[in-house]
Structures are given as structure tokens and as C-alpha cells.
From TrEMBL:
GO molecular function annotations of the record: ATP binding; ATP hydrolysis activity
Record-given protein name: Arsenite efflux ATP-binding protein ArsA
Keywords: ATP-binding, Nucleotide-binding
Top-rank lineage group of the source organism: Bacteria
Domain ArsA/GET3 Anion-transporting ATPase-like per the UniProt entry, residue ranges: 16-180
Pfam families: ArsA_ATPase
Species in which this protein is naturally found: Actinomycetospora succinea
Length: 338
């Protein structure tokens, strides 16, 4: 776990988009990545866009409002802030920012017009969500004193994006923004979103597990990301479990042939005398373990063939709690995340 798998080129990225098949630990690893990037006195923003309040659950905090707030302290003085982006609130913010329609926009919301617009206009919802993320990435602070000028408010923004089945459409829908606004400030803002998402300042990371369906969906999404011209980052392989058997014994153990007699002999030599059903249970667990290791070896070869950087995170035996998020963040740091 000490090898450097995080390419140096990713240090240029300001926006880290994290996606993955449902159930692979996408939100958990997005949170761990935000913590890892914040270590050493840096500040990161962790953003969610699906309204599930997954960030609040991971960090054991109350539901996040449409406002940035500190949710965790990173090692060595850094901090992570969280934000749950709501499409309606984002549209109201656009109307006030670009057209000074703050009061009128709130009236439209009470009438249901905002919800109607975000539902009716194709792609508008994703445009609003990605636009808010872009605004967070580009925000600066400072007054120019001390020769520093204005500096980015956040060293990195981590986006807990939709799952792999929808993430490319969510990100690439910005190419069609011209159908929503052909001129004016929203068009200018939209073009800025397209530029950010297709630049080296963005990296799309995919979370997977060493199982057939998650890995195949990951590989399919890699192809879609490449075709869309979006910048691919790393593959985060989650819940990696070590093999308990030597490589030379795997094939034989997977068949179970003669395994019961061998186990009983070895146990009795150690002074352990088990019932038949207990030995049968151990045989079943051994066969299941050997089969799993063989499947993981096969699907890993498919990931390796994609030629992408891979970072491995172990299965946490005591489950994922706040302490586990910090543990995963430290493991990401050990693999080069900066």
C-alpha cells in the first residue's frame, strides 16, 4: 500500500469527480478523497448533487443545507466543507446573480414555476448543478496585500457525482447548453462549465470492486468518458480483501476435492477434534474463498488492461464509520494523493 499510484499530473486537477456503480462505496471514497486532499492545512469542498444527504450520513452530521459548512477537520490543520446542491436553489441563485430577479425568483418558486422549469427543460437540472460546482471551483478570496493577490478559496473540490450509469450524461450534457441559453450571461457561464469539465483541471475517478458487474460497468464507463473527451483520473478499487491461501493451492481449493480429509488431518495434528458438520463448514468457507480470489484475479486483469492508475482500499472489518473514513484517507495519502 505504499507504492505511488496517484499520477503527478493529477496535482493540477482542481475538480475531482467521483462516480461508481451503486453499492461500491462511491460516497464513502469521495469523502475519504476530500479528507486526503485537505491534509496539511489545505481546504477542500465536498459536494453532492443527488439530494440523498449521503455526505451528512458519512460524517454523522445533520442534513446539509444549500450552504457550505465545515464538516470535518483534516490531519495537520486542513478542513473539509460540505455542500448539498439543490437544482431549484441553484436556479434562484442564477436568476439573482445574472438578472437581479431575487424577489421575483422567490415568487416564481412559490408558484411552482421553478420546479416546472427544472423538470420541463431537457438538461437544465444538470446544467444548474454543474454550474454551481464550477462556481465553487473558480471562487477566490484575498485583497491583494502581501503580493499574493486573489487565491482560490478551495484547494480542491470533490464532487460525489451520479453513478456510472448516468455520470457521463450528467457531465457531458453541458455540450448542449446552447439550446438552453443562446446568448447572455448564462451562456457565458455555461461555456465556462464546458471548458472546466473538459480540461486538465478536472479528473473523473471511478470507484469499483473486484467483482464482474462493477468492473465491467467501470470499463464501459471509461470508454464513454474517453469518447466524450472528459479527463479520466484514477480507478479506486474498494473493499480489497487479501488471499488467505498460497497461489499454488487456489485451484485445488476451489474444487474442494480432498479438502475435508486434509483439513481434518491438519486440525487433529494440532490437537483440534471437530465434528463432521464443523469440518464441512470450514470446507465450504475455504472453497468460497478460493473461488472469490480466482474471480478477483480475473477481473483485475481486465482493469490492468485499461492502463489506468489504480488505488486500493481494503475492506474495513469493523464497518465504515467516521474513524474508517479517516483510515481510508490516510491510505489514499500513502498511495500519493496530494
Amino acid at each position: 500500500m505504499t507504492d505511488q499510484h496517484w499520477p503527478a499530473a493529477l496535482a493540477e486537477a482542481r475538480l475531482h469527480v467521483v462516480s461508481g456503480k451503486g453499492g461500491t462505496g462511491k460516497t464513502t471514497l469521495a469523502a475519504a478523497l476530500a479528507l486526503a486532499l485537505a491534509a496539511g492545512g489545505r481546504r477542500t469542498l465536498l459536494v453532492e448533487v443527488e439530494g440523498r444527504q449521503g455526505i451528512a450520513q458519512v460524517f454523522d452530521t445533520p442534513p446539509l443545507p444549500y450552504a457550505e459548512q465545515r464538516i470535518a477537520v483534516a490531519p495537520d490543520g486542513g478542513e473539509v466543507r460540505g455542500l448539498s446542491v439543490d437544482a431549484e436553489a441553484a436556479l434562484l441563485e442564477y436568476l439573482e446573480m445574472f438578472y437581479n430577479l431575487g424577489l421575483a425568483g422567490r415568487s416564481l418558486r412559490r408558484m411552482g414555476a421553478i420546479e416546472f422549469a427544472t423538470t420541463l427543460a431537457p438538461g437544465l437540472r444538470d446544467v444548474l448543478l454543474t454550474g454551481k460546482v464550477k462556481e465553487c471551483v473558480g471562487r477566490t478570496v484575498g485583497d491583494g496585500r502581501g503580493g499574493r493577490g486573489r487565491v482560490p478559496l478551495y484547494d480542491a473540490v470533490v464532487l460525489d457525482a451520479p453513478p456510472t450509469g448516468r455520470v457521463v450524461k450528467f457531465l457531458d450534457v453541458t455540450k448542449a447548453m446552447g439550446t438552453l441559453a443562446r446568448t447572455g450571461p448564462i451562456r457565458t457561464q455555461s461555456e465556462g462549465v464546458v471548458e472546466l469539465l473538459h480540461s486538465s483541471r478536472t479528473a473523473v475517478h471511478l470507484v469499483t470492486q473486484l467483482e464482474d458487474l462493477p468492473v465491467q460497468e467501470t470499463l464501459d464507463t471509461v470508454s464513454e468518458i474517453t469518447e466524450a473527451g472528459l479527463p479520466m483520473g484514477a480507478v479506486l478499487v474498494n473493499r480489497v480483501r487479501p488471499s488467505r491461501l498460497p497461489a499454488t493451492a487456489l485451484a485445488g481449493a476451489a474444487t474442494g476435492a480432498g479438502l475435508g480429509a486434509g483439513l481434518r488431518s491438519g486440525l487433529e495434528a494440532a490437537g483440534l477434534f471437530l465434528k463432521d458438520e464443523e469440518v464441512d463448514g470450514l470446507v465450504s468457507e475455504t472453497v468460497e474463498h478460493a473461488e472469490r480470489v480466482q474471480v478477483e484475479k480475473a477481473v483485475r486483469s481486465g482493469l490492468d488492461a485499461a492502463g489506468l492508475p489504480q488505488l486500493e482500499l481494503p475492506e474495513l472489518t469493523e464497518g465504515v464509520d467516521l474513524g474508517g473514513i479517516y483510515e481510508l484517507a490516510e491510505l489514499l495519502r500513502e498511495q500519493g494523493v496530494r
